[in-house]
């Protein structure tokens, strides 16, 4: 039972109520002792009135008055004169004296606990103020055996009452917790189990109904999570279908490009200077297209190839990218330039790095042409102590807010109308495969700047 939430509430409630009753028990017993002693003083005062009414009473009546008052001696001080009003033999000498006229709560509690835990009976003197100002003080001697017995009986009654109150309160809280908290939680768990059985079924998404603020917030958070997960699963299914279609297209396209490679060998034999200058670039473009198709086929199998790291002459690679883009620019007023040191060698997969830089430059070129204003695209690079930095900067219109919000997310981070955002997502994944990062440095009305960071050394050396 203690493993359940309601069972633990039941147990803790009993414990806490009992602790509270214990805190009440100590001052209650002290107050009972004080009332007990005060009542004996009042009885003794009443008994002494009989003597005041008749100076001479027989011994039997005196003994009966003392028995009724449950005291041995009664001393009354009136008009500054201390008088022994009633007396009888005492079983033992007086052990202690207690003055109830000026006693602090702490002292009363200490005296009560001392009496409760002392099993030896004693004769004590008790001094108090007479009621209705019938004298200056009244003093009695009593036997503590009956006092301690009365205190124990009173304490046991309090403990039994505390136990009954604890069980009753805990039972009410048990059922209240089950109705208010445990039952709604079980309902949420049931929704979660139902949703887990078929997360694609939107009908199984929880509908918040709880009137408890905290539980309703939990239900709303779970609803949001389930909604997002269901949408993600649907998107994953669509991506899987798209991946299958792309794999088929890439397979056929690879065969076509392979045939085209055979024709480029004969083109290279041409004596035309223009053909000789353009043929190597055509061969490189077709080779990259073949590699891209092969990579797409691997990606369709969820097997993105690991980068084949070699020493790459970055200036030549950037120049190939810019030459390809210049053909697409045509007569538009767009300047393509680079600031890459001629001697700079980076450790990377040349094909994958080409794809990344080409994606960034192409995105910039398309955004600038769409904006219709003259601009410039600059590719720069520098070598740092622990990495190489490659920056692609343009003076175009900048990324739209939606693209910046969903940067590097496929099908959400498109920078232009009709764009899918796949280029940046793939580029970021390829750079992460190198152990580096692709980051957006800035994007506003003055232009956009991306930075590629390629680390030096192997992981074992870091």
UniProtKB/TrEMBL annotation:
PANTHER family: PEROXIDE STRESS-ACTIVATED HISTIDINE KINASE MAK3, SENSOR HISTIDINE KINASE. PROSITE patterns: HIS_KIN. It comes from the Bacteria. The chain crosses the membrane at residues 9-30, 158-177. This is histidine kinase. It catalyses: ATP + protein L-histidine = ADP + protein N-phospho-L-histidine. It comes from Cognatishimia maritima. InterPro entries: HATPase_C_sf (IPR036890), HATPase_dom (IPR003594), His_kinase_dom (IPR005467), HisK_dim/P_dom (IPR003661), HisK_dim/P_sf (IPR036097), Sig_transdc_His_kin-like_C (IPR004358). Residues 248-458 form the Histidine kinase domain.
């Amino acid at each position: 039972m203690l493993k359940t939430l309601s069972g633990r509430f039941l147990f803790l409630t009993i414990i806490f109520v009992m602790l509270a009753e214990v805190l009440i028990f100590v001052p209650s017993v002290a107050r009972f002792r004080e009332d007990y002693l005060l009542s004996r003083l009042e009885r003794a005062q009443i008994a002494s009135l009989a003597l005041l009414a008749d100076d001479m009473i027989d011994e039997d009546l005196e003994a009966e008055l003392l028995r009724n008052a449950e005291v041995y001696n009664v001393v009354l001080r009136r008009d500054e004169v201390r008088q022994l009003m009633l007396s009888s033999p005492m079983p033992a000498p007086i052990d202690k004296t207690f003055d109830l006229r000026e006693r602090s709560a702490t002292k009363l509690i200490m005296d009560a606990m001392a009496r409760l835990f002392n099993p030896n009976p004693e004769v004590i003197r008790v001094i108090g103020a007479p009621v209705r100002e019938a004298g200056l003080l009244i003093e009695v001697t009593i036997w503590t055996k009956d006092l301690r017995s009365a205190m124990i009986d009173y304490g046991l009654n309090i403990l039994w009452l505390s136990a009954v109150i604890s069980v009753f309160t805990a039972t009410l809280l048990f059922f209240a917790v089950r109705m208010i908290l445990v039952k709604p939680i079980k309902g949420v768990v049931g929704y979660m189990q139902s949703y887990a059985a078929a997360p694609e079924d939107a009908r199984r998404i929880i509908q918040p109904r709880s009137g408890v603020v905290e539980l309703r917030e939990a239900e709303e958070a779970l609803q949001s999570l389930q909604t997002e997960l269901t949408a993600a699963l649907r998107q994953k299914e669509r991506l899987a279908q798209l991946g299958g279609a792309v794999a088929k297209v890439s397979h056929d396209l690879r065969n076509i490009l392979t045939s085209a490679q055979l024709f480029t060998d004969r083109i290279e034999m041409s004596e035309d200077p223009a053909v000789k200058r353009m043929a190597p670039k055509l061969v490189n473009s077709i080779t990259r297209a073949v590699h891209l198709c092969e990579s797409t086929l691997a990606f369709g199998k969820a097997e993105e190839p690991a980068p084949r790291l070699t020493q790459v002459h970055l200036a030549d690679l950037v120049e190939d990218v810019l030459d390809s883009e210049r053909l697409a620019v045509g007569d538009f007023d767009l300047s393509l330039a680079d600031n890459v040191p001629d001697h700079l060698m980076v450790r990377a997969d040349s094909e994958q790095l080409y794809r990344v830089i080409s994606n960034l430059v192409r995105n910039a070129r398309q955004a600038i042409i769409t904006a219709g204003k003259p601009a410039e695209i600059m590719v720069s690079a520098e070598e740092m102590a622990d990495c190489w930095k490659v920056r692609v900067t343009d003076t175009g219109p900048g990324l739209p807010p939606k693209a910046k919000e969903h940067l590097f997310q496929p099908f959400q981070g498109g920078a232009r109308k009709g764009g899918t955002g796949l280029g940046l997502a793939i580029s970021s994944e390829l750079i992460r495969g190198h152990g580096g990062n692709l980051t957006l440095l800035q994007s506003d009305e003055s232009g956009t700047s991306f930075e590629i960071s390629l680390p030096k050394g192997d992981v074992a050396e870091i």
